[in-house]
Design a protein that fits this description.
220 residues; mainly alpha
Length: 220
C-alpha cells in the first residue's frame, strides 16, 4: 500500500483528492447502474424493491439478465470505491469515527452485491447495514464539512434515517400501515437509499474542492 501511495504522490494527487474522486465516481456508478438495470428489467416498476434488480426474494426468486449482473456488479464496484475512499480519508482526517462509518457503509453495499435478494438472510442483513451505516455516515459528515453544506448533509442523512426508522416503528410498534405505504416498498426504499447516493458525489466534490496538489495540505 505504501508503494501505491508513492505512485499517487508522483502523479501529483493528494490522498484527499483520491478519496473525493472515488466517492464522486461511486455515486455516479451507483445511480447509473441502478437506472440501467431498471431499464433492462422487463416490466420493472419503481414500486418494487431496488434489490429485485439482482434477484427477488425466496421462495420463488426471479432473476432477469443482464439486469442482475449489472446491479450486482454496480454494488460491488460502488462498495469497493467507498471502502478505498474511506481508507484514504482516514489518513488525512483526525475524526477517525467518520472514515470508519464510511467504510462500513461501503462494506454493506459490497455485501449487497455478493449476496443478491435470493440469498437469505445475508442479503437482508447487508442491506440493513448499508441503510443504517449510510445514514449515520452522512449525518456524521456534518462534523467534517463547513456550512452551508453541513446543512445539506444533515438533511440527506437525517431524512434517510427518519424514513428507515419510521418503517420499523410502524411495523413493530404500531403494527399498522405506514403513511408512506402509498409509495410501495420500492418507493419507500428509494427515499432511504437515494439521499445516500446523492450525498456520495456531493461529498466527493467537496473533498476535491478542498484538496490541493501532492503536498496533501487541505482546507477541510
Amino acid at each position: 500500500m505504501n508503494d501505491l501511495n508513492t505512485y499517487w504522490s508522483r502523479l501529483g494527487l493528494s490522498e484527499l483528492s483520491i478519496a473525493g474522486f472515488g466517492l464522486t465516481l461511486s455515486g455516479f456508478i451507483g445511480i447509473m447502474g441502478i437506472v440501467t438495470a431498471e431499464v433492462l428489467y422487463p416490466n420493472y416498476s419503481t414500486r418494487q424493491d431496488i434489490s429485485d434488480l439482482g434477484s427477488t426474494r425466496p421462495p420463488n426468486p426471479i432473476i432477469h439478465e443482464p439486469s442482475a449482473t449489472i446491479f450486482n456488479t454496480t454494488m460491488l464496484v460502488t462498495g469497493v470505491l467507498v471502502v478505498l475512499s474511506a481508507y484514504y480519508l482516514s489518513r488525512v482526517l483526525d475524526r477517525r469515527g467518520f472514515p470508519l462509518a464510511l467504510a462500513v457503509f461501503g462494506l454493506g453495499a459490497f455485501g449487497v452485491g455478493v449476496f443478491p435478494g435470493n440469498v437469505t438472510p445475508w442479503h437482508g442483513l447487508f442491506a440493513l447495514l448499508t441503510f443504517f451505516a449510510g445514514g449515520i455516515t452522512v449525518v456524521l459528515s456534518t462534523r467534517v464539512v463547513s456550512r452551508p453544506f453541513s446543512f445539506l448533509c444533515g438533511l440527506f442523512g437525517g431524512s434517510s434515517l427518519l424514513i428507515l426508522l419510521s418503517v420499523f416503528f410502524y411495523g413493530l410498534a404500531v403494527r399498522g400501515p405506514s403513511p408512506l405505504a402509498v409509495l410501495g416498498s420500492g418507493g419507500i426504499e428509494r427515499w432511504v437509499v437515494y439521499p445516500l447516493i446523492v450525498w456520495l458525489p456531493a461529498f466527493g466534490g467537496y473533498l476535491l474542492a478542498a484538496s490541493t496538489d501532492s503536498t496533501g495540505e487541505t482546507a477541510i
